[in-house]
Design a protein that fits this description.
Layout: H1 2-8, H2 24-79, H3 82-96, H4 105-132, E1 141-144, H5 145-162, E2 166-170, E3 176-179, H6 181-197, E4 204-212, E5 215-222, H7 255-265, E6 269-273, E7 281-288
Parallel strand pairs: 2-4
Antiparallel strand pairs: 1-3, 4-5, 5-7, 6-7
Helix pairs in contact: 2-4, 3-4, 4-7, 5-6, 6-7
Bound molecules: adenosine-5'-triphosphate and magnesium ion.
Magnesium ion binds near residues 190, 193 and 255.
């Protein structure tokens, strides 16, 4: 009985004494001893695998922290020289806007566009690092979501027209919520810029804002290139882009990942629906009108 109690407590140090003879008790003690030896081996094997898993997990976590650190320092290193470059560029732009510098203008505009892209990339990398290290703080205050939605659509109006797309907004006259307005606008901008990038000329894009009980929902519908349903979830992972890299549109594949982190920090959900390739897509998110601000945490 004492040996049994020890085995139950995973203590295999004591084995039952083998009873000599051919009778049932002797057979039982031999069988019991073999069983304990098997259990002991399995137990040590399990322990060893558990240690290995823990070590692998520790290594992965260290790698993940190193990756976040690398993204953060790369973004800072890339961002620091941007400020003096932009100051000089601003002066250069003023200079070439004067008569006599016409031939230099296209080059300066090209530099300006590329600096703009670099700035967005640096901002996105910093957001990824902040989200992953749980350091992204929301600045929440009362905001009218209808105004945010309408303004976002207005901001993209010219770009949509240039691309030959119609762009509209539908929603209540006002809908107040406690949110970080800048961050909500950042998500809406990404939805709109994606819809414009992935909808061929002649297409339609519509933003809708609605309310269900204490939840507000934004949706951006387009009739563009669409997404295979099986691909929908992985779009919210970092650097996930579906298009053929040879014909890739500009972007790093961070927008939806950051959007998901921002929506989740507001206690909301982000989603994507599409019937498949060529069937258009709808990207949306819902957030509580009063965001429950728990402790910051990175997206899973
Ligand atoms: N409206 C859409 N229609 C079709 N595909 C889309 C749409 N929105 C996003 N996608 C797909 O999801 C991918 C990821 O989008 P995401 O916004 O994260 O990155 P991106 O737009 O490529 O780059 P970034 O936002 O970092 O500039 C896109 O590259 C595209 O393949
Ligand atoms: Mg995007």
């Amino acid at each position: 009985m004492r040996v049994m109690a020890r085995v139950a407590g995973r203590d295999f140090s004591e084995k039952p004494a083998i009873v000599e003879g051919e009778d049932a008790l002797a057979q039982f003690t031999i069988g019991f001893r073999f069983m304990i030896e098997d259990l002991e081996r399995a137990h040590f094997e399990l322990e060893r695998e558990r240690e290995e898993l823990k070590a692998a997990n520790d290594r992965l976590q260290a790698l993940d922290r190193a990756k976040t650190h690398l993204i953060n320092s790369a973004a800072h290193e890339l961002g620091t020289p941007l400020t003096p470059i932009k100051v000089q560029l601003h002066m250069l732009k003023e200079r070439v806007s004067q008569p006599g510098f016409e031939t230099l203008r296209p080059g300066v505009e090209m530099v300006d566009r590329n600096i703009g892209r670099l700035e967005v990339l640096v901002r996105d990398m910093l957001d990824v690092a902040r989200l992953e290290s749980g350091k992204l703080e929301l600045q929440c205050e009362r905001a009218d979501l209808a105004v945010l939605g309408r303004d976002a659509v207005q901001t993209f109006d010219a770009l949509a027209s240039q691309a030959g797309l119609s762009l509209s907004f539908e929603g209540p006259r006002e809908l107040w919520a406690t949110v970080d307005g800048k961050r909500i606008v950042q998500v809406l901008f990404n939805f709109l810029s994606n819809a414009i990038k992935f909808t061929p000329k002649g297409g339609r894009i519509a933003m809708a804002l609605s309310r269900r009980a204490d939840v507000a929902e934004f949706a951006v519908v387009d009739d563009g290139v669409g997404i295979e349903p099986a691909d929908a979830d992985r779009l919210f992972q970092p650097f996930s882009q579906l298009q053929d890299p040879v014909r890739a549109r500009p972007g790093a594949g961070l927008g939806l990942y950051i959007s998901r982190g921002l929506v989740e920090r507001h206690g909301g959900n982000i989603w994507c629906r599409s019937e498949g390739r060529g069937q258009g897509s709808t990207f949306g998110f819902s957030i509580p009108l009063r965001a429950p601000l728990g402790p910051a945490s990175g997206p899973a």
